[in-house]
Amino acid sequence: RIYDIAVIAGDGIGKEVMPEGIRVLEASARRHGFTLRQKWHDFAHCDYYARRGRMMPENWKEEIGKPAAIFFGAVGWPDIVPDHISLWGSLLQFRREYDQYVNLRPVKLMEGVPCPLAGRKPGDIDFWVIRENTEGEYSAIGGRMFEGTEREMVMQETVMTRKGVDRILKFAFDLARTRPRKLVTSATKSNGIAITMPYWDERVAEMASSYPDVSWNKFHIDILTANFVLKPQIFDVVVGSNLFGDILSDLGPACAGTIGIAPSGNINPEGEHPSLFEPVHGSAPDIAGQNLANPIGQIWSAAMMLDHLGEKQAAADIMRAIEMVLKEPSLRTRDLGGSADTQTCGKAIAVLLS
Amino acid sequence: RIYDIAVIAGDGIGKEVMPEGIRVLEASARRHGFTLRQKWHDFAHCDYYARRGRMMPENWKEEIGKPAAIFFGAVGWPDIVPDHISLWGSLLQFRREYDQYVNLRPVKLMEGVPCPLAGRKPGDIDFWVIRENTEGEYSAIGGRMFEGTEREMVMQETVMTRKGVDRILKFAFDLARTRPRKLVTSATKSNGIAITMPYWDERVAEMASSYPDVSWNKFHIDILTANFVLKPQIFDVVVGSNLFGDILSDLGPACAGTIGIAPSGNINPEGEHPSLFEPVHGSAPDIAGQNLANPIGQIWSAAMMLDHLGEKQAAADIMRAIEMVLKEPSLRTRDLGGSADTQTCGKAIAVLLS
Ligand SMILES: CC(C)[C@H](C(=O)O)[C@@H](O)C(=O)O
Ligand SMILES: CC(C)[C@H](C(=O)O)[C@@H](O)C(=O)O
């Protein structure tokens, strides 16, 4: 088995955690007898922007070609490029142009990770956030008027299409069907955002009617975030719009201890385009360059990528290695109360696979 | 001192907690020698809608007149009226038509309230959420197209005006100036919501430049919600758009134990229109009619109202009474591990004032 992987490290700690992700992938490939052909791309980072005035070459799609998956670090260096320019010129463009309409984010409290919630133990927090990843609040329609005057204003559309809403809901209900509790929770705000969100609710009710074996409920986003803290054990599969999914998939991992280990898959389920795997954390300028970053978000993303490629056993082995390393203070990074630096942690996981 | 108060109990537990709020206000008035002239309004609830097909009479503004403040319970009964209709027909209309552009929400961990965050004690969580309350994501512009077909879609504008953004930021910076730490945290999402949110950031930077004595920072809303859980002690005054403020002002109280005691003021700072005081919680159909509701959100809102009216001592006394009752299991309601029902809790607070 040979897989072509596009590798984009990005900015900041992306450049530090990516080598650890690759280290683990290579160990896994040796162990399980598959081959990863890596193509590293030296764009989609802010130094590139500084040199060329854009985040990626015009022919980036050609450059990337047709890999089996994209393995991505983190983008953003606001001292050089405002975040909305660096992100819309790279990551958000991939999500949209490759129609990676599912953003798949597990939330799981792991042994060894200090939990900020009182009295919660591994097993209490174990759910998925399924985020719509191509439309919604992240729209490109809008603008500014009366610039520089007292009447200055900005407007931006939220756009939801039946196609866009239905396919993410279908993904969530299909996923719930594979889980013991078979429960979908929809994030809404139809009491306040009274045009788009009632539509979302309508489509949820409609989709649910095709899944009589799956139960479902809905919460307004305000009380839903409250319940992540107060009752995280009630969630199984949580589905939300682009913005709500974004919020819940940072809040969820925080409730489970840290964003530092959280992975994500930006999935094009039909396989017409490559899917992209990346940690949930960003480029973290504040700790970049100090070998302090936790590489597990990147490594867990590698496991999700292998799972997506069909290497189920390899993925499961990485997860087991992550779990072992998390239990061991000398192998955990400092953000988790351990003493390891980025490489020590990454190497420990790789060694466990060999 | 005579104050005219408009009283609107609303739906569900609104009808149960309002009498306790009034009970406490009356005790406070007797104690401090002022008079509250109450005018109860039998509209802005879903039974009214069931009879009349609208939430309020056409001449509701005349009916309400020019009270010193509006004391509000909770609205919504989705079995009869969809939430977006009941809320846009009442509460959200008040906020907008009375230009109550500041939504003021304290977040405070109180002794006696079980905190879901590990190792936090009273004093660790003590900040304000200042929410823009008239524009932003809660807009009335948008609609649906290609209805009932595969191409069906909805769009809704987020609208931010310089006037709307600047005045809420000014309020936040002014408030921070009165606090020991003098720190404003801005909620943004300019990396993803790339039209309206960069504008928000721009106005924050501009406003901050007029407050050299106030420090400030900003977080994207996703990591900000994470930090509410991971580092609640770093916040002092948190300012956000209508939607972000809504989310943060449920999440904050949850981190401090419960939404059940959280109050809010919908303020028109210029005093051209009445301000409105209400608990953060909603009408809670699931527990309504059982005398289980925690009345402290309503009672704390009464204290905020008195403070707004200039009765500072009366407000401080209510807060002290709330703190005493929270420490006593037999006087706390069951949501806080106590054994009191709604009235027992309300009466206990009133008695402490007499
Ligand atoms: C009921 C709802 C429309 C309202 C809001 O979103 O503003 C509520 O959640 C609040 O926070 O006051
Ligand atoms: C960097 C940012 C644009 C991005 C998002 O909002 O989607 C990130 O927060 C994420 O969750 O992947």
TrEMBL record, chains A, B:
Superkingdom classification of source: Bacteria
The family this protein is said to belong to: Belongs to the isocitrate and isopropylmalate dehydrogenases family.
Name of one Pfam family that matches: Iso_dh
This enzyme's EC code(s): 1.1.1.83, 1.1.1.93, 4.1.1.73
Record InterPro entries: ICDH/IPMDH, IsoCit/isopropylmalate_DH_CS, IsoPropMal-DH-like_dom, TTC_DH
GO molecular function, one term: magnesium ion binding
Metabolic or biological pathway: Carbohydrate acid metabolism; tartrate degradation; D-glycerate from L-tartrate: step 1/1; Carbohydrate acid metabolism; tartrate degradation; 2-hydroxy-3-oxosuccinate from L-tartrate: step 1/1; Carbohydrate acid metabolism; tartrate degradation; 2-hydroxy-3-oxosuccinate from meso-tartrate: step 1/1
Domain Isopropylmalate dehydrogenase-like: 4-349
Keyword DNA-binding: no
Cofactor: Mn(2+); K(+); Mg(2+)
Protein purpose: Has multiple catalytic activities. Apart from catalyzing the oxidation of (+)-tartrate to oxaloglycolate, also converts meso-tartrate to D-glycerate and catalyzes the oxidative decarboxylation of D-malate to pyruvate.
SUPFAM superfamilies, per the entry: Isocitrate/Isopropylmalate dehydrogenase-like
SMART domains according to UniProt: Iso_dh (SM01329)
Name under which the protein is recorded: D-malate dehydrogenase [decarboxylating]
Catalytic activity: (2R,3R)-tartrate + H(+) = (R)-glycerate + CO2; (2R,3S)-tartrate + NAD(+) = 2-hydroxy-3-oxosuccinate + NADH + H(+); tartrate + NAD(+) = 2-hydroxy-3-oxosuccinate + NADH + H(+); (R)-malate + NAD(+) = pyruvate + CO2 + NADH
UniProt keyword list: Manganese, Metal-binding, NAD, Oxidoreductase
